[in-house]
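We were asked to recover a plausible sequence for a given structure. The inputs and outputs are reproduced exactly as logged, with field labels preserved.

PROBLEM: sequence recovery
POSITIONS: 368
GIVEN STRUCTURE:
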């Protein structure tokens, strides 16, 4: 990537840092918003011998129009990152997406798996975004840990829609609508990421990806091998995967989401309802102390509305326990009884006998 800090792309996006791995942060000089730019390298067959400053070639324009059409049709939703279109500059196809403060789920999962209930909170947010997207007649196709942003308040936002569309469009442009060539191009673009290789596309494919992501969050790994695309695709086709029992209370839902028959998978709306019921029955507390992640982002397992409610209730229980312990400490140690319990019975009998003797003596005394 030949862009650098301070450079302006497409006449409006000023880069704020050095690009890495075909991605960069920038400020939209028209709106002042921070955006995330992602780039795809366009092969020479698509750009020909055009000069760097020349207008984009026709294949590049087709890709831009296709990506822009999806961005324009996508609904606005609180848990869906909004795409701002695409453009071609030189030999790169760029997509633009809003970028609020937060940390990617992939970066947070680098520290290890999270609790089943924190995973449920995150995927519940994603299912809400997918429900709106599917209702608009669109599929996402790029539901991965790298496409999820965890905000500073713990909410999870689903991004990656336009980059995913760009990858699929480029694979089709280079390899045709299907066949071996398209598979090879797509494998090079997508890589061995289990969530990206369902047996079917559309909304059912997105829900399958939710099941894979739930498994990844709860166990720290995908349910399918990710050593390479051929191994991954073969395992998915043959149904060879890690048992969903490893996901704890999420296991039954994961099992239904990754089953081969798309007609039997729960919809995004059903996933959200089932996760809400699971969260409502979560034990108290479900997580340890709240720990801040990188850049102040709450680490998985500690944030989110349900997590905050559970933390408050657990705090009240702990406070009552501390108060009771303080009262017991102030009262001091309990004093042992002055009379051993074993002697109480004999002493009581002896006392009664003594009273009888004194009574008899008094009668004799007064009678005499």
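RECOVERED SEQUENCE:
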């Amino acid at each position: 990537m030949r862009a650098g800090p301070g450079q302006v792309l497409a006449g409006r996006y000023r880069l704020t840092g050095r690009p890495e791995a075909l991605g960069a942060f920038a400020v939209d000089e028209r709106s002042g918003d921070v955006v995330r730019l992602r780039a795809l390298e366009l092969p020479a067959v698509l750009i020909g011998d055009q000069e760097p400053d020349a207008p984009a070639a026709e294949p590049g324009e087709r890709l831009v129009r296709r990506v822009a059409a999806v961005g324009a049709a996508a609904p606005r939703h609180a848990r869906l990152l909004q795409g701002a279109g695409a453009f071609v500059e030189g030999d790169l196809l760029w997509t633009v997406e809003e970028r609020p403060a937060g940390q990617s789920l992939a970066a947070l999962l680098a520290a290890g798996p999270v609790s089943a209930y924190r995973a449920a909170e995150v995927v519940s947010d994603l299912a809400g975004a997918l429900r709106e997207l599917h209702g608009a007649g669109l599929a996402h196709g790029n539901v991965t840990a790298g496409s999820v942003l965890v905000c500073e308040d713990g909410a999870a936002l689903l991004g990656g829609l336009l980059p995913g569309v760009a990858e699929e469009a480029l694979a089709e442009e280079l390899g045709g609508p299907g066949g071996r060539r398209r598979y090879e191009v797509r494998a090079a673009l997508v890589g061995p990421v289990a969530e990206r290789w369902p047996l079917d596309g559309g909304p059912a494919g997105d829900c399958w990806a939710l099941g894979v992501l739930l498994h990844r969050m709860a166990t720290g790994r995908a349910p399918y091998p990710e050593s390479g695309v051929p191994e991954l695709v073969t395992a998915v086709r043959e149904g060879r995967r890690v048992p969903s029992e490893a996901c704890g209370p999420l296991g039954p839902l994961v099992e239904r989401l990754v089953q081969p028959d798309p007609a039997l998978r729960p919809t995004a709306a059903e996933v959200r309802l089932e996760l809400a019921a699971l969260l409502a029955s979560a034990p108290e507390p479900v997580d340890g102390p709240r720990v801040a992640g990188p850049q102040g982002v709450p680490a998985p397992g500690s944030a989110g509305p349900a997590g905050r409610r559970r933390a408050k209730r657990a705090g009240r229980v702990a406070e009552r326990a501390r108060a009771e312990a303080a009262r017991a400490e102030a009262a001091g140690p309990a004093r042992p009884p002055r009379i051993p319990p074993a002697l109480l019975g004999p002493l009581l009998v002896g006392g009664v006998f003594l009273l009888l003797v004194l009574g008899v003596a008094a009668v004799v005394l007064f009678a005499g």
